[in-house]
Amino acid sequence: MRDLLAKLQSAKDFLLSELSSIRAGRARISLIENILVEAYPGSPRLTLKELATLSVLDAQTLLVSPWDKTVVSKISLAISASDLGLNPVVDKDVIKVPVPAPTQERREEFAKLVGKKVEEAKISARTIRQDAMRSLDEQKENGKISEDEYFRSRDEVESKVRKITLELESIGKAKKEEVMGI
User: Fold this and answer.
1) What is the average per-residue pLDDT within 117-124?
2) Which ranges carry the Ribosome recycling factor domain (predicted)?
3) pLDDT band at residue 23, thresholds of 50, 70 and 90?
4) If we measure between CA atoms, which residue out of 55, 4, 47, 50 comes closest to residue 28?
5) Helix ranges, 101-146 (H)
6) Angle at which helices 104-141 and 147-180 pack, to 10 degrees?
7) Most buried by CB count within 10 Å: which residue of 4, 40, 47, 50?
8) CA dihedral in degrees (4, 16, 33, 51; nearest 10)?
């Protein structure tokens, strides 16, 4: 049962991580920290947080200070190419990233994206449930657990998955309200 709880918590944590990158009008480092940058030819792409110091300059501006000043233009291109609709401004050795308040249309797109991420997390929870049920079926067939224990465990699995599904929906609803309430 601990394994089930750990997997369900992992699905919830992943959703929270995914939703943190969906912007709601305020400048947040989580918005850009995982943008992939092809900084050096022949090497794997690196995330922005691996290449620079990221900070919030003010409520509407992020500041990117690359450790290697030769990759400033590549970082700027990667931010521009991301699907976040941001236009970075190179200022000598740093990059300022203005985060404009999204339009109503863009907020609706973000709300749809939130719904999609929540649905993916719920699918993950259902998959975890199916795996747990399959494991219980195998244990019952092999005589490792009694009939009573089998049904009690099934009910417990259903209860835990139902609870996490409600939490995922609640998280999604709160994020949609945050996105739409700018």
Assistant:
1) 94
2) 17-180
3) low
4) 55
5) 104-141
6) 170
7) 4
8) -20
Domains of the chain: 2-19+103-180 (1.10.132.20), 27-98 (3.30.1360.40)
CB count, 10 Å around CB of 126?
Answer: 13
Write out pLDDT tens, residues 46-60.
Answer: 888 899 999 988 878
Strand partners, 61: 58, 98
User: If 0-12 CB within 10 Å is exposed, 13-18 middle and 19+ buried, where does residue 95 land?
Assistant: buried
1 and 36 Cβ atoms separated by less than 8 Å: no
| Placement of tokens 């995330």 in the chain | 47
Which residues, in sequence order, are bridge partners of residue 91?
Answer: 94
Q: Which residue has the tokens 């022949």?
A: 42
Pairwise CA distance, residues 106 & 108, whole Å: 5
Number of Cβ within 10 Å of residue 114's Cβ equals 25
Of residues 77, 62, 51, 74, the one with CA closest to residue 21: 62
Listed residue (175, 158, 145) closest to 8, CA to CA: 158
